[in-house]
């Protein structure tokens, strides 16, 4: 018997497993739609309540960020697997500047630097960015006059735009977290159980992409400190 629309709207306990060549324990699984959260066990298994079209974010410092949209097949089977790739941190810029003192606020004021990229150094490298699956879908939906009209009417273009922006934010906040978390919380402590919520609080900010995309580490850290103050104020209220 096939699913009905009423079944699609129900929340189901989904059983998933993360497959990876690295450590599979304590990988974060976030249902971005319902704001539910869990972590994997030693063998990569987890359970999280979900419903149709919910977005799951699989986040780990050691792995590439993965975003999954719950579909009817996953709900019907009530189980699925997610394959994670190791995160390879490539050196894409070298900052030449003053020696840092170790005092975070003092260093923020004193650092005056210009990033040295591979392009500036004359090293041959690919400077473009490979489109994601959602970006390819959006490009295809916009191709041709008839296709653009049809996909505008049925909402595909709007949905693909939202997915592209979601993935862009998730990828950026994952990168920022890997680079800034240790320094940020060393100087501005925050309970470990609140840190994941804080990162997504930052990503939801209307100025997040404008303030953090393609910006150097000092500017990004300034943004994080500002957001952390607001986050703590909101929780105290």
TrEMBL record:
Taxonomic placement: Bacteria, Pseudomonadati, Bacteroidota, Flavobacteriia, Flavobacteriales
Alphabetically ordered keywords of this record: Coiled coil
Protein name listed in UniProt: Carboxypeptidase-like regulatory domain-containing protein
Coiled-coil stretches: 150-182
Keyword Coiled coil attributed: yes
Superkingdom of origin: Bacteria
